[in-house]
Each structure stands twice: as structure tokens, then as C-alpha cells.
Amino acid sequence: MKLYVGNIIYNMTEAELSDMFTPYGKVLNAHIITDQHTRQSKNMGYVKMGRKQGMLAIAALHDMYVNKRHLVVREA
């Protein structure tokens, strides 16, 4: 299952994004979208994990307040 993760902080790394989802199951891939020219984060990313684990992560993390931001987590 591929999850969209929005409203993340600009300096979050892919490892930190993966770590945020690890308590809910094995993360297969975590990717933060960046601008091609500036390489700055576009404030969003994608996480790939199993369907059951993904549903748990959505339930736990969607609208959670992390680093002064409300996360958006949904199926991509």
C-alpha cells in the first residue's frame, strides 16, 4: 500500500519519515518529494508498506500534531 504523507517539515529526512511509520509495520520504501532545482523538500512524501500496516498507520498518524504541523496521511 502506498501512503501519501503531507505537511511534513522541510528538513525531515527519508530515514526520519520511515522511522515515524515503523511502529505500525515494516516500511518498504519512504520517499520525500523535492524540488529539482533547489533540492528543497516540497513538504510531502510517500511511504510504501503492507495494506494492514498502512491502515493502522493512517488511523494513528492522520491529523497527528508533529513538529508543530498536523500531518495528512492517506492512501495514495
Structural summary, described in words:
The chain is α+β, with helices and mostly antiparallel strands and 76 residues long. It has one domain: RRM (RNA recognition motif) domain (Alpha-Beta Plaits, 2-Layer Sandwich), CATH 3.30.70. It has two helices and six strands; from the N terminus they run βαββαβββ. It has helices at residues 14-21, 51-61; strands spanning 2-6, 27-34, 41-49, 65-66, 69-70, 72-75. It has a four-stranded antiparallel beta sheet, covered by helices on one side. Strands 4-5 form a two-stranded antiparallel ribbon. A hairpin with a 6-residue loop joins strand 2 (27-34) and strand 3 (41-49). The longest helix has 11 residues, at 51-61. The radius of gyration is 12 Å and the shape is globular. It starts with a strand and ends with a strand. 20% of the residues are buried.
Task: Map the helices and strands.
Blueprint: E1 2-6, H1 14-21, E2 27-34, E3 41-49, H2 51-61, E4 65-66, E5 69-70, E6 72-75
Antiparallel strand pairs: 1-3, 1-6, 2-3, 4-5
Question: Which features does this protein show?
Answer:
4-stranded antiparallel sheet, Alpha-Beta Plaits, alpha+beta, globular, 76 residues, 2 helices, two-stranded antiparallel sheet
State the separation between the terminal residues, measured CA to CA.
8 Å
- Global mean pLDDT: 95
CATH architectural group: 2-Layer Sandwich
Biggest sheet strand line-up: 2-3-1-6
Low-confidence stretches: none
N-to-C SSE string, H for helix and E for strand: EHEEHEEE
Just give the CATH class: Alpha Beta
- Gross geometry: globular
The whole-angstrom Rg is 12 Å
Helix content: 25-40%
- The count of strands amounts to 6
**What portion of the residues fall into strands of 2 or more residues?**
35-45%
CATH level 4 superfamily? RRM (RNA recognition motif) domain
> What name is given to the CATH topology?
Alpha-Beta Plaits
Query: What structural category characterises the helix and strand content?
Result: alpha+beta
* Total number of helices: 2
